[in-house]
DNA sequence: TAATTTAATGTTATCGGTAACATTTTATAA
DNA sequence: TTATAAAATGTTACCGATAACATTAAATTA
């Protein structure tokens, strides 16, 4: 590997002069500068970021930890984070926890040993608290995305889950639906809790009875075992006319399960959900959703993180919370009830 | 930050002894070992990976560069790479080129300065050649995924694009289709070229005439402008009864465009494509596809890369090429023609 | 022209680890 | 008991960069 010492030797200057040319710091005569530049080109010099980080005590690296890399909500978010990171001169590392608190722990270790300057986390759930405490203990700035964790104050970007749930339920009732079920993520995930709350409130406002048999609390992540959805469908009697899904993946699992028993959407069952389907959203006929602004989650979160990093000493800076609106996109997965 | 020197001081030993305890190297008495361990815990010691990499001249970092992070083919591939990397003791960095040769260049720079031990690349296309040459020049081992680049020999994992195209066309003809169109990625992407070839060969084998008006060569990546698809539809007269799409994203764009003119799939138009839709594959009624083994692309590619890294000196090791089969999954996007 | 700034460049120490070699203890053999 | 091998630990140099503090050369000023 070519180092600044190789450059220095060949250009007949000191390593420090080379460093100055590279970083455009200090005073350098034009003659020296161009000579050093020429040698760098000749030798195909590439700066060693690790050596630089070691002495500067900063890596210009951010880490994005998401819970499901196959979910377009998170990948779109990642695109936003990537763009914002680049804009601010940071590079971005990714990790994928698969909604598993254990994998999350592994990534927290990686984060610490890698000495990243800051972290964007979509926590797996409330049990992620110890991981966040670890980050805090080691003074690694972080921003939470999409989910809060009780017991941990921090910067955070959220979607308006409660309002979103209300919009979905209102849409359904406005088309005549009265038996509306909810399939949701685990109650130890804050967004799932809020969606349940919004659902309940909307029922009440529409003078509909809440029936806990109509609610299934499962996991947001995709899995092959659909038996809990099946038994849930069995236990609802009569079947609802519409289902609200807590996210896109659950919605598709519902479609699949319904299909197995010959029930189609929207003819026999109406279905709405949270989160768009990324590049596959516009398939027709397709899901009416509350689309969260995934890209903005990543972009704004990263911006907040960079601010926090740069104001590090100013410990007094209060935590910020951004709540992004949830906009409904009406497509064709809901039919009218007379 | 706590360093091995802090540990050493508090434990009353030398830094080297601490290093030995951490890495389980050399001989250490049980007494010393446990004392050092205790102090490490007390002080919440976390090793600094950058310092370690600097002296070891290896980072235990791999880089995965994909062209579209919102495409489930690549994210599933990423999951495979992640798992394989972890298994071999490497961590994984991601980058997303958006099918842009320029962004790809930026990532190549990042790759070089980050001193990763190896790279997995899905190249944007044939114009990626200079980037690969840069990697080669700097002796960074890499493995190509999904696409080859003429002029650059290397390890590579491919799907059997030609065979896949044949299967799709055969499936259509077996159901009576005679006017079969193809919408494909850019001809400067190797997989697109092979898909076109397979399409042509299959037509010939089925005694169907090749008509270049029935072929649209555009870009694999998603974009908002659908005008080229529209003009393509206009120029086909008569309209085909079936369309083969070069990947999942194109297929959905076709669905969208057709929908705008009131043409539905599969009633008025049959549609098949390459690549599954990840978590959204099982929506019903949905696409008949040739599903590439995305996870295996990542997993096997990473395995090959790690081998290559570890045999670095053995320059004689010949390049390996893995071709994964393309399996057709029949769903409901094709209707029968009498 | 000598004194004083300012510009240009160089030296040394350091970031946090580890390899290679050196030294001190302890255990074993003669 | 002494010589010798093996075990345990320590010292020094270095990985590739930069900060902080010299030092030297050139430009101004008195």
Description of the structure:
The first copy, chain A, starts with a helix and ends in a 9-residue tail after the last strand. The radius of gyration of chain A is 25 Å and the shape is elongated. Chain A has 338 residues and is an alpha/beta fold. The first copy, chain A, has three domains: 4-47, Orthogonal Bundle (434 Repressor (Amino-terminal Domain)); 59-158 and 294-324, Rossmann fold, CATH 3.40.50; 161-292, Rossmann fold. In chain A, strand 1, helix 5 and strand 2 form a beta-alpha-beta unit. Chain A is built from twelve helices and twelve strands. At the A-B interface, helix 4, helix 5, strand 2, helix 6 and helix 11 of A face helix 4, helix 5, strand 2, helix 6 and helix 11 of B. The structure holds a DNA duplex (30 and 30 nucleotides).
What are the key terms here?
Rossmann fold, homodimer, 434 Repressor (Amino-terminal Domain), 43% helix, 3 domains, DNA-binding
């Amino acid at each position: 590997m070519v180092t600044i010492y190789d450059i220095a030797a060949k250009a007949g200057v000191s390593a420090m002069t080379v460093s100055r040319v590279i970083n455009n710091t200090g005073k350098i005569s034009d003659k020296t500068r161009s000579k050093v530049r020429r040698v760098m080109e000749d030798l195909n010099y590439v700066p060693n970021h690790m050596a630089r980080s070691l002495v500067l005590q900063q890596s210009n690296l951010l880490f994005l930890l998401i819970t499901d890399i196959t979910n377009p909500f998170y990948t779109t978010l990642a695109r936003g984070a990537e763009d914002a990171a680049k804009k601010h001169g940071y590079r971005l590392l990714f990790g994928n926890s698969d909604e598993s608190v254990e994998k999350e722990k592994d990534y927290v270790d990686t984060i610490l040993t890698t000495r990243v300057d800051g972290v964007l986390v979509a926590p797996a759930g409330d049990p992620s608290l110890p991981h966040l405490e670890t980050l805090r203990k080691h003074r690694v700035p972080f921003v939470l995305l999409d989910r809060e964790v009780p017991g941990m104050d921090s910067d955070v970007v959220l979607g308006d889950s409660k309002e979103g749930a209300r919009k979905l339920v209102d849409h359904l009732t406005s088309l005549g639906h009265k038996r509306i079920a909810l399939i949701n993520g685990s109650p130890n995930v804050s967004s799932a809790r809020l969606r349940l709350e919004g659902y309940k409130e909307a029922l009440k406002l529409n003078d509909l009875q809440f029936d806990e048999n109509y609610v299934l609390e499962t996991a947001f992540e995709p899995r092959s075992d659909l038996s809990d959805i099946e038994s849930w469908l069995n236990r609802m009697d009569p079947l609802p006319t519409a289902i609200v899904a807590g996210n896109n993946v659950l919605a598709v699992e519902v479609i699949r399960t319904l299909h197995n028993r010959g029930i189609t959407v929207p003819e026999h069952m109406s279905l709405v959900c949270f989160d768009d389907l990324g590049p596959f959203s516009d398939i027709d006929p397709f899901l009416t959703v509350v689309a969260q602004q995934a890209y903005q989650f990543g972009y704004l979160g990263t911006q907040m993180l960079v601010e926090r990093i740069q104001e590090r000493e100013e410990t007094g800076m209060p935590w910020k919370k951004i709540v992004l609106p949830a906009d409904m996109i009406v497509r064709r997965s809901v039919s009218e009830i007379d």
